[in-house]
């Protein structure tokens, strides 16, 4: 239906969801694998691996359908709140939201212009999208904690086309470079080379397009959006290798600014610290009684999945700001404030989730759009 209202499981009653784009590994890899074909067959058939992959494919199909709705809905003059709610409500419907079994992967990022990431409206925020804005739409869908993290950039003036093209090209370069046993710094080097081969003319001035050097792609683990390894978007000397069956979000950010972001502005994004065990959390003294009840609510509703203030409002929490601050100050919850380049600059982003399967890489979130 248009707009889509039918949950994805109803469209695929046999529960076999469409696979993403398959990319072959490079020549070096092929030589290694010729010797252990049987081993690989066994791994590809592994029940747990298939279940995880199928969950990700279901989440990815939801992501594709939701972003189609988003692209049609997003127009200058819309409020950020209405855009976020359209994306989130469509996600809830199509993924059949059900606690930790299926739902939203993290808050809808709607960062504009020099804000690179981690902006979503809080209650009462009346920001309106304008014709001259560069909007990054970054949202997540999960099934059984398997998160699809994928993002794209929307503009309404063709003068930004080169910026958008540079970043899309850089992200695709990173995806192509990724693979089993590939060093993270080598991926960053290839991304940087492509991104920084572009320049853009804006209002009579030429700007080099730079990588935002302190933003990275990342591993994704069940219910944990940023886990383990970071995938740089510049050559950074990290010789850590990617490994078989790992899941990565490959994302790049290109900017007309200084190529470095800092935390600034009102925070909306939070997540429980996934590195702490329940026992460790239990030993941390919380000064404010409200912090304890809020923590219980966060644990029950989100676990280690990221959330925003609007999601707390939605589950009926109120008067929670002091309690939330106490949780952040004590290290139990992490705050992720907006990340910004210099005012007046423009940042674009593209991102896909990939899986390094034993015989090929699957770009799970790939669609006809990007």
TrEMBL record:
Its cofactor is Co(2+); Zn(2+); Mn(2+); Fe(2+). Keywords: Aminopeptidase, Cytoplasm, Hydrolase, Metal-binding, Protease. Binds 2 divalent metal cations per subunit. Has a high-affinity and a low affinity metal-binding site. The true nature of the physiological cofactor is under debate. The enzyme is active with cobalt, zinc, manganese or divalent iron ions. Residues 55-254 form the Peptidase M24 domain. It catalyses: Release of N-terminal amino acids, preferentially methionine, from peptides and arylamides. GO terms for cellular component: cytoplasm. Transmembrane segments: none annotated. Its EC number is 3.4.11.18. It comes from the Eukaryota. PROSITE patterns: MAP_2. Pfam families: Peptidase_M24 (PF00557). GO terms for molecular function: initiator methionyl aminopeptidase activity; metal ion binding; metalloaminopeptidase activity. InterPro entries: Creatinase/aminopeptidase-like (IPR036005), Met_Aminopeptidase_Type2 (IPR050247), Pept_M24 (IPR000994), Pept_M24_MAP (IPR001714), Pept_M24A_MAP2 (IPR002468), Pept_M24A_MAP2_BS (IPR018349), WH-like_DNA-bd_sf (IPR036388), WH_DNA-bd_sf (IPR036390). GO terms for biological process: proteolysis. Belongs to the peptidase M24A family. Cotranslationally removes the N-terminal methionine from nascent proteins. The N-terminal methionine is often cleaved when the second residue in the primary sequence is small and uncharged (Met-Ala-, Cys, Gly, Pro, Ser, Thr, or Val). This is Methionine aminopeptidase. It comes from Smittium culicis.
